[in-house]
Automatic annotation (TrEMBL):
InterPro entries: A-crystallin/Hsp20_dom, HSP20-like_chaperone. Belongs to the small heat shock protein (HSP20) family. This is HSP20 family molecular chaperone IbpA. Pfam families: HSP20. It comes from Candidatus Methylocalor cossyra. SUPFAM superfamilies: HSP20-like chaperones. Residues 35-134 form the SHSP domain. CDD domains: ACD_sHsps-like.
Length: 134
């Protein structure tokens, strides 16, 4: 019996939407909520040139003073907390798709020595410029 193309196309579209939803959930890499562990990881872009490494993290709604940056060995660790902005006891929350709470992103640096420049925040993105010292 031949397959109905409209039914097949609808099934494919639904499957693609489900895949997109799964990717969206992985985008923030949600963890189990444990008191000291981060709840989400911000997405990151890393661009390397011969002179520097440019790292951009997407952290909308996070004030710059709430972000900590540390270098430990060959890891750059960016962490902080995004406040919910509403008392969950005093409100009915219908949906939370934007991540809130503690976050941390560990970025393995390429071989070499780097000096971390002054971080900048604009349009919800934290940008770090690491100057290559080698």
């Amino acid at each position: 019996m031949p397959r109905d193309p409209t039914t097949w196309m609808w099934a494919q579209a639904c499957e693609m939407l489900e895949q997109a939803e799964r990717l969206h959930r992985r985008f923030f890499h949600l963890h189990r909520i444990v008191a000291s562990r981060p709840v989400w990881e911000p997405p990151v872009d890393i661009v390397e040139t011969k002179d520097h490494l440019k790292i951009t993290l997407v952290v909308p709604g996070v004030p710059p003073e709430a972000i900590d940056i540390a270098a430990v060995g060959d890891l750059l660790i960016v962490s902080g907390e995004k406040p919910l902005g509403v008392d969950p006891e005093a409100a009915v929350i219908h949906r939370l798709e934007i991540p809130y709470g503690r976050f941390e992103r560990q970025i393995r640096l390429p071989a070499g020595r780097f000096r971390i420049g002054e971080p900048s925040c604009a349009h919800g993105c934290l940008t770090l410029l690491l100057q290559r010292l080698d």
